[in-house]
Amino acid sequence: MKTLYTATVTTIGGRNGHVQSDNNVLDFEVRMPTGLGGSNNEYTNPEQLFAAGYSACFGSALDLAISQSKIKTGTTSVTSKVSLGQTKEGGYKLAVEMVVNIPDVDLEKAQELADFAHQICPYSNATRGNIDVAIIATNE
């Protein structure tokens, strides 16, 4: 692989810790959400950060897919729902549902574009075969 960019972030304290990027743009506390035994939902958590990164990356892949298809669409959006679950062996695993909205095209074309974006998105390529990812297209 030819490296184009490397992001560097350090976390001290895990899920109840502090996150900081090497350029200091990210500099905040993370905490366990109440759903995982945390005391409140006033902080971000690793699942939200993963969802943010995946949806942003997928959105860029979607823009490329639409551009290559040479069709006109309305403003697109990608909502990433990241779930943390426990395996039967006692470990933990993620699952993702991507809701990809591509207005002004028929639903079949929207799904085709979303599926193509899933093939070229770096997050999708990193997770393929490792976690369940459902791609759901809408055209509202």
TrEMBL record:
SUPFAM superfamilies per record: OsmC-like (SSF82784)
Pfam families registered for this protein in UniProt: OsmC
Domain of life, source organism: Bacteria
NCBIfam families linked: organ_hyd_perox (TIGR03561)
Family per similarity comment: Belongs to the OsmC/Ohr family.
Name used for this protein in its record: Organic hydroperoxide resistance protein
Organism: Flagellimonas yonaguniensis
Upper classification of the organism: Bacteria, Pseudomonadati, Bacteroidota, Flavobacteriia, Flavobacteriales
